Amino acid sequence: MKRSTAASHDPASNGNSVTNFSLSRLFQLSATERQGVTTRRSLRLQQAYERLVAGGESPSVTVPINSPEPHASSDGNESLASSATPNISPPPVKVRRMQVGGNPAALNNRSVGDRLKEKQKDLQSHVTTTEGSSSTAAAAPSTSTTTVALNSSVTTRDKPLSDRQRNTVRVISQYLREIGMTNTVETLTDESGCREEDPLATQFREALEKSDWGTIVEIVDQLKDQIKESSYMTLRVTFLEELLKTHFSSGDLIAALAVLQKEYPRHPDFLDRRKHYGSMLAADADYLKSNFADSIVMTQKSDLLDLAEDLFPPTFLLPKAHGSNGILRDHKCNTLHFPNRTSQIISDHEAEVWVLKFSPNGQYLASTGKSGLIYIFKVLNDRKLAYYNRYMLSDELDGINCLSWSGDSNFIACGSAGNSHFGIFLIDIHRIVDVEFPVQDHIIRLGVEKFTVADFFPSPRQHRIVCADQKGNFTVHDVDHDLSDKGNDFEGLRVNGLYCLKDGRTVLASDTLFRIRSYNFENMTDLTLIEEAHPIVSFTLDSPEERCLITTKSGGIRMWCLETRTLIQTFFGSVHADIVVNACFGGANEEYIASGSEGNNRVMIWKRDEKYPVKYLDGHNGSINAIAWNPHFKNMLVSGSDDHTIRVWSSVPPGSTFVEPVPEILSRVDEDPRDSPVDCEPYLRHASVKY
Amino acid sequence: MGLPFVEWIDDPKQLFVCAKCGTCLTGIKHLVSESFRGGTGTAYLFNHVINVNMTESIRRVMTTGTHWVRDIDCRYCNSRVGWFYEMALKEDQQYKEGHFILELALTKRIPGMVDIVAQKRMKSDAASSSGESGSSNNPSVSSLSFEEEKEDVTV
């Protein structure tokens, strides 16, 4: 949020404002000031300050940080913030604008604390009645000798400091204490009314030092409301286990039993650990002693403190000096919501897997490959799939190279690979077909001897398909009404890939002349959108249909903006020169791009604005042909490869010491697929769950 | 090894495709000479062929002399379609270097297609200019025979 600098009040200022007030900048500037470098702005600030001081008035407090307008009081007042260095001795530490007046000669030699205390005494002798509702902090430091100013400052201080202000003040006081300015810290605490640390937090620290686990558990309980359920459970369990360990090592089995029975959470996730400790009760005393020797417990204290700092609300335990972030916490959602481990391996396909597509409602996954079999899986939760249905189209197919879901997620259109031109097959995913005898009645076939690629228009109420091939056929069919070509077609194209836009009229097609063009079947217009420099292997669009991701043969994966038709970014790292490899958008806010690769068997994930991958997912034994990111569960990614398997990648919670092995599962038709429950809750618990 | 990615040649007149699987190999605009013979009969010399895999370089003695050649396979179905001249040891044979031989018996000819954008350009040219046909983008290729020699390949 932009705040105007103090200098903006100064008529001489050029109106520049300080963008982005951050503590690091605060400290930065103070460093340069220490070296005697004065900026123009700092000079102005300094001059303004001198004027004020000369005028016999020290700056009074102004409006709290968050208000966007300059404060209501007269423009002679300015608010200045301390830069927390010994050289500069500005007035009270009100965290607002940065004061960089660096010329010590002009200012007093007394320390901040001393001057504050003097003024405080002055004030208190003047004003005794205006204490009122404002805290003791309010009256003291507003260091104005005139009662008028004091009143105004008192009234503005009636508003308690916002959380953000409190936290910033606390960070500042932590820093000041570290460099040894305890007087200032006291004054600051008095004035602002914020203690450096919650008394509960101090208790917590002391208890941790003394290994007083019981107290710690109570403290955790008190904070139950402020932290997430999962964090709460983890913390509680961790400390309870420490408690148990002390009981065990001292041989006090009865106390341990009591703890286990009463305190240990009965959550099913913790069942195994509970059983483990329960079994310990029955063990030999000596064994227990040796197992839970004190040394083991001690070394974990720092880990425990780190864990607590991570999981408690950030304002509770101030983590010590993580750079200059202070109360800011690292953005951790990536590990929670990012696929990083294989959670399931499906080897139903006994052939190379070439295409993977999630249905628009995110509940089903269709997969197909070299064998011409189509498998449909149901998404159970963000880690697991279950078998749903399968289709065998024809024995003569070389394989299926293209799948498209209808808008209502009930039908799939598939096109055959190679130049065999079997046409486009439409299948109803809910119909169970005997695989041994591929019955053609259940399958609708469009355009025999024509068409290799097809795409449904995404509208859920209609079923219109665009079909094309590399021999110049390119038409749209309305399957609800009739199956023949409507007569609207474009000629003179060899189409490799199709994408129908949400408006229901425009189709994007990539062709063999390195272009992506848009076609409108209603008014028969077409337009060249993108002319690439390399052969286009495949392409896809993101959900808002603003960006186009093109996998090229020799130019990497390129992202184009469709509106301006310019190249935004090229992503390097994956190989796709000889085979068809797909890439897709996905993840939170569709910020990530995932692609398989030929040859190095890795799934690569890029952030949308970085050239090189941010993550590799290893595990496959063959080139990865197909990849799909679940539109509903942002942390679920599936990849299909030449090693005949499909792997489901999902997120494993951070900080969990429970690492699960990866199982091999073969989904067979054991159960009726309609009986599997669908659990739509994403898995976010820290627990020892066996996948 | 994954779904192979095949490219196409943009030729409005005629295309040469693999006889077995139909993968596009080249177009008639790349034809250099028609007077060659391979193991299966007539063969054509082209200067640009796509969708093929090449073997390692083999030293072969042919009627015209000793050459280093690589055999060519269709990338999709792995069937043989011809060979590629890597190096010719006689100076007058060096025009063949870097060129491809496709045996006619192993390939098919299919009619080419005029690209949609080229079509539009043709129409607008025909509409705007009078009498001048902007039809053929490609120069008409006549078979230029550098030599009338027939070539035998010891396979």
Automatic annotation (TrEMBL), chain A:
Listed Pfam families: WD40
Biased composition (Low complexity): 128-149
Gene Ontology annotations of biological process type: proteasome-mediated ubiquitin-dependent protein catabolic process
Biased composition (Polar residues): 74-87
Coiled coil feature spans: none
Keyword Repeat tagged: yes
GO CC terms in record: GID complex
Positions annotated as WD repeat: 346-387, 617-650
Biased composition (Basic and acidic residues): 112-124
Annotated segments matching region Disordered: 1-20, 56-164
Alphabetic keyword roster: Repeat, WD repeat
Protein name: LisH domain-containing protein
Origin species: Panagrellus redivivus
TrEMBL record, chain B:
Positions of region (Disordered): 125-155
Residue span(s) of domain Yippee: 14-111
Compositionally biased spans, kind Acidic residues: 146-155
PROSITE patterns in the record: YIPPEE (PS51792)
GO terms of molecular function: metal ion binding
Entry keyword Metal-binding: yes
UniProt biased composition (Low complexity): 125-145
InterPro entries in alphabetical order: Yippee (IPR034751), Yippee/Mis18/Cereblon (IPR004910), Yippee_fam (IPR039058)
Keyword Zinc: yes
Keywords assigned: Metal-binding, Zinc
The family this protein is said to belong to: Belongs to the yippee family.
UniProt name for this protein: Protein yippee-like
